[in-house]
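Subject: sequence -> structure tokens, single chain

Hey, anyone have a minute? Need the predicted structure for the following. Not urgent.
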Amino acid sequence: VRIVRDCITYCATHMKRYNPINISGYHVSEAGSSPLDEIAFTMCNLIAYVEEVVKTGMPVDEFAPRLAFFYVCQADFFEEIAKFRAARRVYAKIMKERFGARNPESMRLRFHCQTAAASLTKPQYKVNIVRTGLQALAAVLGGAPSLYNNGMDAAFAIPTEEAIRIAI
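Reply:
Had a minute. Here:
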């Protein structure tokens, strides 16, 4: 936590346009957690990091606009849309009510999303195109500002050029 604190404070002071951290929930979800746990763990990490940075005397609005998150979009279409929408509201509430953020950018959840590698299958791998397409749509409808769509053959190899073209 101290290393993260030091990284955030250094970047806020010397590298103002740099994102010092991506608070990740992707690995939590891919390990089998529920969407609720994925968001809860990242928000707990957020609170721990922000508390530490604020203890240094740095105002929350000086560093919070550059915090970023990394989430997965799993296969349950409506649950994933709701997860992202709820995460944005929870984040804004934490930043405003708990940490006193005033800058709207400090209350905007900036996150990258990736479709779920755990949902990809080797047999009939071309079906993964539809699978990741629906996951990508759920991420967009949930408000994801940044998205990576897995290639259809990523279940068994580094994606081929064709798979990457299709994913894009």
